[in-house]
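Data availability (excerpt). All sequences and predicted token strings are deposited with the supplementary files. A representative entry, Multicopper oxidase CueO, is shown inline so that the format can be inspected without opening the archive.
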Amino acid sequence: GTSGGTDRYEITQRQATARILPGVPTTLWTYNGTYPGPTIESRRGRPVTVLHRNELPVPTVVHLHGGRTPAESDGYPTDLVLPEGWPDPASRRRRHGTAHMAHDPRAVTSRVTREYTYPLDQRAALLWYHDHRMDFTAPAIWRGLTGMHIVRDAVEDALDLPCGERELALMIADRAFAADGSLAYPALDPELRDRPGVTEPYAAGVLGDVIVVNGAPWPVHEVDAVRHRLRLVNASNARHYRLEAVTDDGRRLDLVQIGADQGLLAAPVTHTALPIAPSERYDVVVDFAGLRPGSRVRLRNRLGSGRTREVMAFRVTRAASDHSTIPKALCDDLPTWRRSQATAVRRFTFRAGQGQQGSGWYIDGKPFDPSRTDVRTRRGAVEVWRFTADVHHPVHIHQTGFRVLSRDGRAPLPYDAGLKDTVSLRPGETAEVILRFDGHRGRYLFHCHNAEHEDMGMMANLEIV
Ligand code: C2O
Ligand code: CU
Ligand code: CU
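Structure token line:
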């Protein structure tokens, strides 16, 4: 609903049963009973409040990924929304004495409901919201706590991009199912243990063998033979994809990238295959013109094998007129920070580590601790952050967009164009990004967005002062 210049939404987090696989029910954790949750559409600069009500059996936290959000609404991992009857976290910690759940005196918990406020004073982009509870983000996302949030603005309105039915927001994820249709996750029920043991294949990140797009396995979507705008988000816990659009006769269609995590590129970049790491978004235009009615275009994943090679398909229905255009220049509002402006160069290593609680995934050799400040930065300062990885780590920073400056000392890849909030580090790689925190002050995070790595400690605190 709308009132007083603010859009207000109410979301109930509850269990719901869905038909994902034919013939068997799947119980999910949902936002408002659906998976994905409701797609919210907003205008830049028009604030949104979302009143979340937690009817799930566990505490939850909501984070709007890619949002420039005041700290109290950013979904800090200890700012829990406790369900009815759940013991106060401080007393629970005393009873169980878990070392891992370090005491966080700054946590602001709420009981059953919490209102999140999003100013959305930021570029048009596909954002997504998901659970962010400390140590339990991965199983919560796996069980369904994800949704999309589209921000629009006048810059984008001025372009004639494909719109209406020709604009598709596609949330791609993988899941595994037991024979009875229930979701299979290799960790034991997290509520029966304080922390699942770090065992393979859990430690590498959990993969599923069913590819689910907007809640449906390998869907087939009917399209007119015209340009379509595909707004892709990889909401998988750990799976990387390398997407290509292939016609019946084996031809690869161009994927014309017009936007990245944080909105439009300056100019389109044409790919024939597009890698997408967990939490990344790509905004691409695919032209189905000239394809025979009845023919199919398969969106395939070159990194998959067997059935994870397929993602979804488009079935061409008919020829139609197309007034969309992809201009050579898309926008001119991208930040142009230069290395010479940087007042700090920070270095971080993302590696497997060994700690008191066993092995995990650490940043600079340390597991996440909410009571430690890892980075203190000044609002408005331009900085270079240099990340080094042992294996694949998609590194995400809250509260900013950044530009990729280099990979292993060389120019960034074609996929790195535009303003990003996640950079996909390849094994052994060092990548540099340039950024500026120019919005709110307060306590935020940066972390690996392999959800299992994140839960196993690969997260750090960022204090913007
Ligand atoms: Cu997508 Cu810290 O989150
Ligand atoms: Cu985020
Ligand atoms: Cu990682």
